[in-house]
Write a structure and sequence with these properties.
By secondary structure, the chain is an alpha/beta fold. 53% of the residues lie in helices and 9% in strands. The chain is built from 16 helices and seven strands. The strands form two sheets. It has a five-stranded parallel beta sheet with strand order 2-3-4-1-5, sandwiched between helices. Helix 3 packs antiparallel against helix 5 and helix 11 packs across helix 13. The longest helix has 22 residues.
Length: 317
């Protein structure tokens, strides 16, 4: 009778990594440049902790899958189509750009570029117009990431003459058949995206990752403003810092508030007012500090600080 030791009974699969000290996940992480993409995401985007955590989790999955392939452990490629939900100005497009970079560095897409579109780029206005439009967009996006903003507008069941369903059907086919060469990210308001996926079960079954982007807090919006000004080599005077905090508190209570996008717009208008303020005193000497400083007056001129009647006019914010 022949006896077997436990080690003899264990059948290792081809390429089993047991005891292989050359498997270094940290080196793979650094060499793939994924570290740079994640660090830039952390550095450039304020807040969004749940979003950053989910992006890191996806990156970790892809890194481990790449290491598994290197040692002969083959599995079906992880599904990568995504849904980004949240209000305007919460960083969805920026995160999509970083995701495209991560996917490229890990070899999941060939080019790593981002093609951002809306319904108008995909859906035609007459019979026979939608298919070529949609296919042209898909051709441009191949090898990278297709980002479809306000994706729920693709599906309008109340309009029998709408051609959006044709675009949806083409997208479904490509998402399934060419998922190794294209990642699609759908984006928009959460409630509308939920209805969109509920009305398109085939689409919902192909989207594996749902990431919700929370609104920024007042303090996060203030920090975003400071980062934006620093990038443009401006600074806020002490009085302007207090004024900006008040501006943020008032502005976010008004209609059509778009988080970081609204703050960027406010700073652009403050720069315009600062330039005009300096121009009006051009006969006097001015310093480098004058050129770099946003004063409280540059913010107080906003309609946000006017009476309640003026505050209701979003076009003047």
């Amino acid at each position: 009778m022949t006896t077997h030791t436990p080690d003899e009974d264990r059948l290792d699969p081809p390429g089993d990594p047991a005891g292989d000290e050359s498997l270094d996940l940290e080196s793979l992480y650094r060499d793939s440049n994924v570290a740079d993409a994640l660090e830039s995401l952390e550095r450039e985007l304020v807040g969004l902790r749940p979003v950053k955590t989910r992006v890191r989790e996806i990156a970790a999955l892809l890194l481990v899958e790449k290491l598994r392939r290197q040692v002969g452990l083959h599995a079906e490629a992880p599904p990568l189509h995504m849904s980004f939900t949240g209000n305007p100005g919460t960083g969805k497009t920026t995160v999509a750009q970083r995701m495209a970079s991560i996917l490229h560095h890990l070899g999941y897409v060939r080019k790593g570029h981002l093609v951002a579109v809306t319904r108008d780029d995909l859906v035609g206005q007459y019979i026979g117009h939608t298919a070529p439009k949609t296919k042209e967009v898909l051709k441009r996006a191949m090898g990278g990431v297709l980002f479809i903003d306000e994706a729920y507008y693709l599906y309008r069941p109340e309009n029998e003459r709408d051609y959006g369903q044709e675009a949806v059907e083409i997208l479904l086919q490509v998402m399934e058949n060419q998922r190794d060469d294209l990642v699609v990210i759908f984006a928009g308001y959460k409630d509308r995206m939920d209805r969109f996926f509920g009305s398109n079960p085939g689409m919902a079954s192909r989207v594996a990752h749902h990431i919700d982007f929370p609104d920024y807090s007042n303090e996060e919006l203030f920090e975003i403003a400071r980062l934006l000004l620093d990038q443009m080599q401006y600074r806020l005077s002490p009085e302007a810092q207090d004024t900006l905090r008040t501006y943020i508190d008032r502005r976010r209570a008004q209609p059509h508030f778009a988080n970081a996008r609204s703050i960027r717009n406010a700073l652009d208008r403050a720069r315009l007012r600062q330039a005009n303020r300096l121009f009006e005193r051009r006969d006097r000497s001015m310093s480098r500090e004058d050129l770099a400083t946003i004063d409280a007056a540059d913010l107080l001129a906003s309609r946000v600080f006017a009476d309640a009647g003026a505050e209701t006019c979003p076009s003047k914010h």
